[in-house]
Amino acid sequence: MDEQTLRVFLSLCETESTRDTAALLRVDQSTVSRTLARLEAGLGVELFRRHGRRIALNRAGVSFRGDAARVLDEIEVARRHVRQEALGARTVRLGFLQSVARWLVPRVVTELRRDDPDRRFELRQGFAQDLFGWLDDDVLDLALVTPPPLARTTGWRLLHEQVLCVAVPPGHRLAGRSGVGVDDLAGERFVAFSRTTELRGVVEGMLGAAGVEVEVAFESSEVDTIRGLVAAGMGVAVLPRPERPDAADPVYVPLEPRTTRRLGVAWPDRARTPAVARTLTG
Questions:
Q1: For the domain with range 89-158+263-281, which CATH number is right: 3.50.50.60, 3.30.2350.10, 3.40.190.10, 3.40.50.300?
Q2: Is pLDDT above 70 for 282?
Q3: What's the predicted TM-score (pTM) here?
Q4: Looking at the domain covering 161-261, what would its CATH class be?
Q5: What is the CATH code of the structural domain delimited by 3-86?
Q6: 21-46: burial string, b at 16+ Cβ within 10 Å, e else
Q7: Predicted pLDDT at 278
């Protein structure tokens, strides 16, 4: 019993005709008939009822159909795994934060393809805690993410620093300022990051250190959503200054003293494929 035999059998299940199966598989009708005969002889049981030129699955055939389909599925999975392994030396499994998807990911991918135009990427988006977990679990080779917690041994290298600003709607009392201190945010309605994001901890740490209380009006895990809500006058937020400003953006006023968000590439502390090794040293 081989792959082609199973394909002939499954086609016969659909067409109920050796002639139609022969046409679909582009083989002689006699080849289809002989293949079915060998299969039934090997199993020691008939799989179809004969009705003149038409055939129909019997009880044994119905049972065997599911098993045959699963075997072919496993063969396809095995093929896919082999192809992926063959391409592995040129494939980078890259994870990234949502907030860097529009600007840092395209830049990194473009730079990495300069020295290897055929390099492949598997991309996955997540929160910082997800990305570090996926590095540990060998789901990712690299992640574009903030620095790892001090307790981790994950490798990390700085790529970019974003200036943190207070984002306010046009016409807000702080919109015309050259800089804003954390104290100036006391009592403001806040559009905050959700608790699953690393920026939520950063902002809460700043407010807590200054003893400043704000009213959290909305929460979101998406930077673009927060930008839109602030621009619509729903509150203020602490956001990284966008790398690609938009006409519909809120007004960004730098925090004083200057505060930045560090972004870089992280990798697991284990052996890496040649493509990933070149990425880290290039």
A1: 3.40.190.10
A2: no
A3: 0.65
A4: alpha beta
A5: 1.10.10.10
A6: bbebbeeeeeebeebbeebbeeeeee
A7: 57
